[in-house]
Amino acid sequence: MEHLVSSWCNGRSLPESYILPPGKRPGKLTVPLANNIPVIDLGGHDQTDVINHGVPSNLMDEAMSVFKEFHALFAKDKAIETSKDPNKSCYFYTSSPNYATEKFHFWRDGLVHHCNPLEKYIQFWPERPPRYREVVGPYTAEVRKLGFRILEFTSQGLGISPDHFSSGLSENQTLLVNHYPPCPDPSLTLGVGKHRDPGGINILLQSDVYGLQVFKDEEWVGVEPIPYAFVINIGYPLQIISNGKLKGAEHRVVTNSNVARTIASLFFNPSSETLVEPAKALIDASNPALYKSLTYKDFLSKYIAASSDSKALEEVLSTTL
Ligand code: OGA
Ligand code: NI
User: Which PROSITE patterns does the record cross-reference, listed alphabetically (predicted)?
Assistant: First the structure.
């Protein structure tokens, strides 16, 4: 656990292992803020409403507080609180789950745990801070409802069955709570490198600290936190299921030298044996499948093998390249 970023970062300069190769560094630190990310208001009549999303604002505040309190624990306590399940449905890492083998590290600590079914997994969640389970249980339950509404609207928009995502394709709901401590040199490292998420959708709660950037039209743009709004991110599997109609957004996280940033993402991932493939209703003679069908397990191994090389991954998954 001695490699926890938050346990040693205070007052030190950036260790060599966190300095990214020149081509992967953030480059220009000030990028334009995005001004055309659609803000969807789920409170209106026409289902395009993701403010007024139904998750109570006090629950969002409380969840963010316990996530920050968790990351403020001593490293040895974080280790204890994340090793309750021998099958490792709850775990903790610095940089990425491949810390031991990766060539360079990213400036983040991450807590991960499964959330579905809640009754099965909650016993393995942290018990410190003391309110963790009491707050995060209802939080994930509310965000789950929101996720299913969004997936239903997504199906409607694509013209596929409204329950297309209701079982295997979204069964594996996993919470990732990232913490990015203040960084000695944000120009040389990143919190998370450029990637597309490996899940279906991701419902992301940001603290009020900026750090998320999206790669759009060959340019990085910043996604400023909007109070009580969620960021909805489309992952690669949804790109496959929609046969390319929806695009997984490429994004990364920059650090800053002043304040820590905490976020919580609920990922709606397929279960391991579920087939990830273009929806049959979107395929016909004039619209051939652009992607191969793969179990989610096989998709993930290809995703991991391609590392963050999106061209290499596209080549492996595409039927046409
Ligand atoms: C991630 C990620 C975004 C953020 O962990 O996959 O993209 O804002 N995090 O921290
Ligand atoms: Ni991501």
Answer: FE2OG_OXY
| pLDDT, tens digit (0-9, with 9 covering 90-100), for 31-43 | 988 877 888 877 7
User: Going by CA atoms, what residue is nearest to atom 6 of ligand 1?
Assistant: 197
* Cα 96 to averaged position of ligand 2 atoms, centre (Å): 12
> Does residue 241 fall inside a structural domain?
yes
Global pTM? Answer: 0.94
**pLDDT of 130-150, one tens digit each?**
999 999 999 999 999 999 999
Confirm whether 93 is domain-assigned.
Answer: yes
Q: For a pocket test of ligand 1, which of 106, 251, 303, 310 has the largest count of ligand atoms closer than 8 A to its C-beta?
A: 251
**Closest by Cα among 9, 7, 4 to 184:** 9
Task: Establish if 190 belongs to a structural domain.
Answer: yes
Give the distance from CA 147 to its chain's centroid: 13
> What CATH code is carried by the domain that includes residue 150?
2.60.120.330
Taking residues 107-132, report their average pLDDT: 97
What integer pLDDT is reported at residue 44 of this predicted model?
56
Residue at 208 is within a domain: yes
- How many structural domains is the chain composed of? 1
